[in-house]
Design a protein that fits this description.
Elements: H1 2-24, H2 30-58, H3 62-90, H4 92-99, H5 102-114, H6 120-138
């Protein structure tokens, strides 16, 4: 139950932040909003990591740090910038479901890079994601 609660807390946090992004981008450029968000997140995460996981941080291998550096480049600056830009241009209600298509890319890369097998449940999930994207992209604006 704790894991479900944490997942719902993360989802509500992302949903709330999307609204705040939309409001903040009324008064500043997407690149500046992305920079402020990244700096604030880095500071908070850095303090929490050092305060709670000092020994684990010191024990990390160079390859692990390199992988997370790549993730940090792809996910945070690039992903957040494109996410904020889409919210600015499409609005939260249309851009957020598109952002939720991330599992499509994760499945594709998991199959190609790590050799994972596709299962029926994954195929059904992919079909539902495409259905949701179709509804989001073809629906009329209110």
């Amino acid at each position: 139950m704790l894991a479900i609660g944490l997942a719902l807390a993360a989802a509500s946090s992302w949903g709330f932040s999307a609204i705040l992004v939309r409001l903040g981008l009324r008064d500043m450029a997407t690149s500046m909003g992305t920079l402020i968000s990244l700096v604030a997140g880095l500071l908070l995460t850095g303090v929490l990591a050092v305060a709670t996981q000092r020994e684990a941080l010191a024990a990390l291998s160079l390859s692990t740090v390199g992988l997370f550096a790549i993730i940090g480049i792809l996910n945070f600056p690039m992903g957040r910038f494109f996410n904020y830009l889409s919210m600015s241009r499409l609005g939260v209600a249309r851009s957020t479901p598109l952002l939720a298509s991330a599992p499509l890319f994760a499945v594709l890369l998991a199959v190609l890079v790590t050799g994972e097998d596709l299962r029926l449940s994954t195929g059904i999930g992919i079909a539902l994601i495409f259905a949701g994207l179709f509804v989001t992209l073809t629906g009329r604006e209110a």
